[in-house]
Amino acid sequence: MSTDTPERAAAAGSPQALIGAALLAAGRPVRLRELASVLGLGEDAALRAVQAFGAALDAAGLGMALEAVAGGYRLIVPPPLAGHLAPLLAPPPLPTLSSAALEVLAIIAYRQPVTRAEIEAMRGASAGTVLTLQERELVKVVGRSDAVGQPLLYGTTEKFLLEFGLSSLQELPPLQGADFSHLLRS
């Protein structure tokens, strides 16, 4: 016979309550293995619980949705409701990236790790926007090349995945060939 009282069982929480609490408390995407640990379940069972949680949110219409992003899960405002919340959101979004910055970001995303010289060779122009992308935490230095002078190698960050709503780089749309000249140019 169990010694748990109804209050004690409620305090421990249902798997859905624990998932919701974990996602809210973390304030970042939470990986499946972390959720499995919180739930005391194996990853397969935790995945089923997370999927059930997402379905329950959708069915309840509570103004929240579950999103798989950056290798984990997070709670978001469903896109149809986001526009209604604009007055509450701060700070204002950063200015949009220039087409040159977007082109450099695309090259880094698809070819990482890549040096600045390689980016410039692909673009046929300067890659000065790398610094802007670093300031926005969309790209980072991921190492040094073995080439002469050991130039820095650049790659994308977890914030890049978050900003573009990707779970991983494998979700990037496929490219046609290895020619990057068509990327983000008018």
UniProtKB/TrEMBL annotation:
Tell me the PANTHER family matching this sequence: SEGREGATION AND CONDENSATION PROTEIN B
Species this chain originates from? Deinococcus wulumuqiensis
Alphabetically sorted, this entry's keywords are: Cell cycle, Cell division, Chromosome partition, Cytoplasm
Q: What Pfam families does the record point to?
A: SMC_ScpB (PF04079)
Q: Determine if Iron-sulfur is one of this entry's keywords.
A: no
> Matching InterPro entries, A to Z?
ScpB_csome_segregation, WH-like_DNA-bd_sf, WH_DNA-bd_sf
What processes in GO biological process is this protein linked to?
cell division; chromosome separation
Protein name (database record): SMC-Scp complex subunit ScpB
In terms of superkingdom, the source organism counts as Bacteria
